[in-house]
Structures are given as structure tokens and as C-alpha cells.
Amino acid sequence: MSAVPENASAYDPRPVESAAQKFWDDTRAFEVGEASDKPKYYCLSMLPYPSGALHMGHVRNYTIGDVISRYKRMTGHNVLQPMGWDAFGLPAENAAIKNRTAPAKWTYANIDHMRSQLKSLGYAIDWSREFATCTPDYYVHEQRMFTRLMRKGLAYRKNAVVNWDPVDQTVLANEQVIDGRGWRSGALVEKREIPQWFLRITDYAQELLDGLDQLPGWPEAVKTMQRNWIGRSEGLEIRFDVVDPAGTAPEPLHVFTTRPDTLMGVTFVSIAGEHPLALKAAASNPALAAFLEELKHGSVSEAELETQEKRGMDTGLKAVHPVTGEQVPVWVANFVLMGYGTGAVMAVPGHDQRDFEFAHKYGLPVMQVIALKDPKNEDERTYDPAAWRDWYGDKARELELVNSGEFDGLDYRGAFEALAERFERKGQGQRRVNYRLRDWGVSRQRYWGCPIPVIYCQACGAVPVPEDQLPVVLPEDVAFSGTGSPIKNDPAWRTTTCPDCGGPAERETDTFDTFMESSWYYARYTSPKAREMVDKRGNYWLPVDQYIGGIEHAILHLMYFRFYHKLLRDARMVDSDEPATNLLTQGMVIAETYYRDNADGSKDWINPADVDVRRDDKGRITGATLHADGQPVKTGPVEKMSKSKNNGVDPQAMVDKYGADTVRLFSMFAAPPEQSLEWNEAGVDGMARFLRRLWTQVQKHAAEGAAPGLDATALDAAQKTLRRKTHETIEKVGDDYGRRHSFNTAIASVMELMNAVAKFDDASAQGRAVRQEALEAAVLLLNPITPHACHALWQALGHPEALLEDVPFPRVAPDALVREALVLAVQVNGKLRGTIEVAADTPRDRIEELARAEPNAAKYLEGLTPRKVIVVPGKIVNIVAG
Ligand code: ANZ
Ligand code: ZN
Fold this sequence. Notes:
The protein is an alpha+beta fold. Helix content is 35%, strand content 21%. It folds into seven domains: 36-139 and 519-586, HUPs (Rossmann fold), CATH 3.40.50; 155-199, no CATH class; 233-434, Valyl/Leucyl/Isoleucyl-tRNA synthetase, editing domain (Isoleucyl-tRNA Synthetase, domain 2); 451-471 and 485-510, no CATH class; 591-622 and 639-669, Single Sheet (Rubrerythrin, domain 2), CATH 2.20.28; 677-817, Isoleucyl-tRNA Synthetase, Domain 1; 821-881, Ubiquitin-like (UB roll), CATH 3.10.20.
């Protein structure tokens, strides 16, 4: 029955942890189903990429999830905590090139290793639901969904610009372009237009925006980032007719502006290099053609487009101002994006900084059309067309239109409405809402991903693979060299017949963006083995009650995740609108860095595990030497654990040395979950000592034999005090776990309780009963964090081996919280003059009487008339007298 080791007095985590893990495995403790009368609770941590080994960021993330899961189960919930592997992706291809192994082989080996690491940490995971996203069982659903989205018009194909490495003959991700060159080849990267698949997330832009207001359980910071990413703006689309002095009659152009109030300040029009008018003008203008060609080089990342130097060229075309009829030049400008609005901008250099910089550089006119309504001085009254000035910076100041003819004197709103009216009436423009959000490009020109289920036929075009021919399986046993994709290079895989006409056809050889797999995995966990992506079990578990992961996923993953849930809803697979009601974004794990300078000025980063550090009594580093040679190393800043700074601490080494419980305890104790956690081994040691003390205290208590039942009416003052401490701790820890997610303060409270137990030296029957209650509470309260030790200690306290998650979380006994005697401060006119001790239930007028009678207070009250007595319950009595 008992799994308590023979030599029970010394804490040895190894046998304790394997015994607890064996019990959980044997009893399938964390496998859950839907037939439960308890409320469901779905606790989900972001699934790991199988990179090779767990890092501390994983340990922190999964420990937070595990503590919440175990706590929720102890408080009567039917808790699902699943785990899986985000198994497709670029690192497997890079590793394949380096190690000459197939990406699949490398990935599956990593999964096996990391699974055993997760198991050694003792997470309460329902492993029966595990999957790897790179298996056909998983991605068949993604492929089927995609073909349905194609049929609904929600998946479509269009040309898009990618980074092309001309030497490696491959498409590069934005992060693989470094200073405009391919990361591996060093070749100048080109922009190339190739056909790619997109999901129409923009159809859901407004809903994705509005939905954020229904998510009170998400951090404000994440919601703000999502709002900015969706980037809704209201403006006007205005038509400008175009004239060509050379004689042709070009199409008119449309601009999108959020500032129609500045219309009368337009001195030119800027268009994107890919704008049809630019292409047309370039046909007869070799200099312009060369310039457009030049614009094609460089990165496609928007951040870079924003910051790069403004460059442009006159097209020779003229745009007709829609109000004045004046002609203004049309320029190509490198900062105008073809993919936003209309790809054309009415340039107002007087009031837009980018237009100002551009006008300044090319000598184009600048005109003021907005002014402060209440200029405070001459400087505010005059506008200097040679210096940029932010007239909108001070939102509190009122502005008005000037130099704008009939619109003079109007404010922003007034001008917006007047112009909207006018253009809508004349059919020359209309109100328009624009979103910065773009459709989600899901094609990747890579091998190690889910094949896009499309067949190309000369006669029928792009045809979705019929459902009965799915999955389109990615071959795993391939030779991978890095040049070209094994499926693209394999004619047998590529060639097929058209499902529509039976003619010869070819398969799509691009694969999906790996964000596709991580967009719906949360739903699949609810419905293992379901024939469809999700079955009716989805509605039992969803939405996720608590989602936990890194803040780095605030935008892309969390946006696709919300979008996909809406796709599932519209496919009638789930009923809810949002995938997760609460989100916790945990902070980074950081650590000290150590290095030596190399002769060439570079740094050699040294892992903290190889350094011996000396510290002063405040814990500050006073010196550090390399373990291997005893010679000094330099100390760098405390930074996020990373390969580049070689400051990662290997969780496995820590688990091997201290045990999983100590690692879990430290990662919860060292910082609140949202903040950075600095890893330091002295702190880990401290946690190990605490667990050893807890262990010995329990063993010592148990050695005295079984404690009798507790009789709350027969306790002396010291016994009542310990009992009160026990119940105050229960109250605090429950609130810290359940509501505040403040695990560090929960641990600190249990530590305080254990200090009180250590000081409680009472071998009487009721003394032992009170201590038994305190120790049982401590064990149950710590169980979510250090479940292995608690599993053993529970038995040491005289209970049969049990799943502590099914032992109810301790409850507060209200009578135990009552303080028998209260000490109140007595003040006279706000100054402390003495104290009185009263029973907790003393009526107010009796308290006033006692306060006035307090000898020192009475002395100060002599000769004065009391006017008012203020009683702060439980704390202060202040007598106001004069
Ligand atoms: C005139 C103007 C005057 C503008 C002014 C701004 C300030 P958001 O808020 O992001 O929607 N714009 C429009 N399409 C663009 C494109 N394809 N590439 C680059 N810039 C573009 O920004 C809308 C504003 O960004 C528009 O309003 C337009 O410049 C510019 F004092 O029109 B504005
Ligand atoms: Zn066909």
C-alpha cells in the first residue's frame, strides 16, 4: 500500500518521484472523459516545438499550467490538461542538412526524448490525447478543412511577393534575410512574385476586433497588440482623374485617406511601385522602369519599408485635384504599399511627416491647410514650410482648416463629413473602412510541412483534392539536401491525374505555414480519434478555460487561433465564438551571462554551469572563474536564456540534481508568472532545503504516532493560534491559486505556516491534533506545485495512498479565523498614547469606555472634552478632544 521509502527520515526525491509517477500512470489518474457531474475545466499550455530538449521556458510554462490544473481538480472540476507536438517546421530541415538525417526521423526522436523529460517533471497530463502535428492522422483534417474553405471561397490563390535567394534557389522567410542578403548564401535577395494560397482572415477583421471586448480574461497588452494589428481605420476613398501630357488617356486613380480634412493641401500623389499606373508609365520611360526594378530588391518586411530612406521618381503623369481641378504630379514612392488601401496616397507634405520628408527631398511644394484654433504666440501662428511640425501631437488643442476655400474654419469631423457627402453625391468617392490586417498567406515553399491538398490540371485549373483521396501524405523517408524540396524533385509524387477530368495533372508541392497546425490543435485534443476535425465532445470542453503561453505569440498565433475557431464555428463544428476565455502570458526566464574576450574583439560566451561564482552576502557577484582552468571570466548582463549568449540552464540537469519538485517549486517561487524569472542556483538550493525541512517535520510528527481527533472547543491559546494560522493560510493560498495566479505568495504563506509549526512545541493530544491539521493543510496546499513529495507525505500522515487531486482542497473553518483577543491602539488627537486588549466581540461603546480609561490616554485627556471617538475595527481607537 505505502509508497513511502524504507528510510523515510531523509528526503530523497528520486524514489519519491518515481513512486508517485508510477501511481499516476498505473491508475491513469489524469485521463479524463466527458461523463462527469463536475464542471469542466480545460487548462491548456501552448504546445512545444520538438527542438531536441526542454528549455526552462517550457518548464515554467508547463508548471504554471500544471499547478492550475491540479488546483482546479482539487476544487471539484473535471480537468483536461493535454499535450502534443507542433512538429513541422524549418529547424527540422536545417538539422537534416547538418546531421544528414531525414527531418521526420530527427523530429520523432526529439519527441520521444522530450516526452520522457516532460514525464520526469510529473505533469498531470492526459497522455491518451497526445499527437504530433506531422502525422497524417492529424493533418488529414487540416487538408479536408482547407478544401472546404476553397469551395467556400475562403481559401484562394493569388500572386504574392516573396524573398528569393538566387543562389540557394529558395524562398526565404523574413527572418532569414539579414541586411538584404540570404542568411546562408549571403546573396542579394530579390523580391519575386509567385502564386500562393491565402485564407480570407480579412472577412473576419471586424469580428476579430469586436471579439476582443468580450475577453475580460485576456491581458490588456495582448488585446491592444491585436487591435493595432487589425488596424481598423475609417477614411474616404477618393477618385483622382489622371492626365498624361504625352497624350494617352490613363485610368483614374483612387486614394485612401484617413485625413480628408487635408485634401486642399495635396501637392502631389504618391503611388506604389507595383501600381498599374506606374507599370504603364514605365513602359515608355526606361529610367522609371529601371527604378521600379530597383524597388523589387530588398526585404518584403513592412517594418523595413517604414524605416528605410524615402525614395521616388516622377511618372510624368498628372492627377486632377477633385475639388480645385488643378493638376498635381504623380510620383512613385517606395513607402507606399501596394497591399494597403488602394496603393495610392494623396500626399499632404504640410501635415504628414513621410510626405514632408519626400517633398523636401524632391523639392515638391508644401502647403499649410490646418492651423491651431487658439495660437498662443507668434510661433504657433506661423507655419514654417521648411521644418516638419506635428500639428496633431497635442490632442487637447483645437484645430481648424485654413487655405481651404469653402472648407475654412471646419474641424476634422466637419471637414470629413462635408467631403464625404460631396464625393458620395457626385460619385467621386465614398466612406471606407480599411484594415491593416492582411489575408493570411499559408503557402510555404518548404518540404517539412503539411502538403497543400491541391491538384493543378491544364484544363480545370487548381482543383481541391477530393475528400476520399485525403490525406495527401508527405513522404518521410527522404534524402534532404537543402536545395529544392524532395516532393518537388520527385516526379512520381508530383504527377497524378485530375480528379475532375481524369487528365494528367500535378500536385501542389508547397506546404502549409506551420501556424496552420497550431491554430486548431486545441480543438483536436477534445476529440481524439474523431472522424472529423472535432466532434460533439468539442462543445463539452470548449472554450479553453485557461490558456498559457509566451507573450511572443500575442499577435500571430493568437490571432490565427481566434480566426480558426470562427471557421470551426461557421462550419458548425463548435458553438462558441472564442477559443479561450482566459489567457496568461508568462514572462521570460533570464540568467546571468559570462564571457571572455577573443583576440578579434568577439566574445566567447560561457555557460553558467561551467563557471564558479563568488558572491557577497547580498548575493552580488564578486568574482567568477571558469571551472575548467580556474581563470577569471567576465560577467555580462542578466538576459533571456538563449543559445546566442550560452546562458541556458538545462532543466534536465536540474531535475537530475535536485528532483522535479524542487525545480517546479523554484520556478513558481522566484517570480510572479507574468514577470521575468531569474534563474539562480542559490535560489534552487533554498527550495531544496525547504522541501527537506518539510519532509523531516512531517516524519518527526508521524513518528509520535497517530494524532487524535481535533476538538476545537478544547484548545489552549497557543493551539488556537496555530489553528488560526493554518486556516488563514488555507484562505490565502486558495485565493492566490484560484483568483490571483500568484503562486510565489502562496508558497511564501505555506513557508510561514511551516515556521509556525516548527515553533509549536506541544506534545499533548490536542497539540498533536492541531499539528496534524497544519501539516495536512500544508501538504494539500503545496500539492499542485510539489505533487510528488506531497503524494508521499500524505501517506506519512497516516492516509492510504491516494490521488491528492481527488482529495478536496482544504476548506477554511470560519470559527478558526476568529481572533480571541484583539490589541487596539489608543490615540488621543491622532497620537499614539497606549494600547488596550479586548475580546473580538466587544461592543463599540465598551471599547470607547476602555480606551478612555487607558491610564496614559486618560492622562492626556485630562482637562479636555472628548468630542468624537473614531474606531477602526480591530486596529485603532482615536479620541478627538479639545
Ligand atoms: C492624406 C493624409 C494626410 C494622410 C495626413 C495622413 C496624414 P492608416 O491610419 O494606417 O489607415 N496611406 C494610404 N494608403 C497607403 C499605402 N498603400 N501605403 C502607405 N501609406 C498609405 O493610414 C492611412 C493614411 O496612410 C492615409 O491618409 C494615407 O495618407 C496613407 F496629414 O492621406 B493619408
Ligand atoms: Zn482537369
